[in-house]
Specification:
Blueprint: H1 6-12, H2 16-38, H3 44-58, H4 68-92, H5 107-112, H6 115-126, H7 129-140, H8 145-152, H9 156-176, H10 188-191
Amino acid sequence: MPYDPGLVEAVCAGDPAARDRLLDRWLPEVLRWCLRLGGPRVDAEDAAHDVFIVVLARLPSLRDPKRLPSWLFGITRRVLARHRRQAWVRRWVPGLLPDAIEAGPGPSARAERSETTRIVHAILEQVPPLQREVLVLCDLEDRSDAEVALLLDVPAGTVKSRLRLGRRHFRLLAEEMSLLDGTPAGAPEERGDEVLP
């Protein structure tokens, strides 16, 4: 999705309307990243909130507003890593960190309760992080290799390689968990055009 690099300058100048436009433009995307990359034990809304706390505090340090998407993805990546560490600690040491307060299940929470979604999240969590990022961005968000290369600040060939390895890893894990039964030889993974569910 295109965005206006002048928006960053307006936010840095203290324009509250510009800040609201920036949040309206990027919050849904950051929330999707958090849902898909955070895993089942990370509260995606809480993580997205933390991302924008960092973004608004550090936005004046962004030297090139055209790099906002990759800068924002990098912040999201680091915030999610912190949230995953906290979730891991909560798993083993209950009560050490407060659990998120739930007012009631929202649409995303209800969707995550479906068995297939739970299995897909569990499988994605086992895919190596660099491959998982590319899988989510390319296959779940339908981004092109070139767009993902810009977001991750890596060559397009690296994106293609990680995507191929990530798809293979996902397929093997999915077959182990009986998510994919009897996929014929010559399946899309081998052709390189598979899209995750």
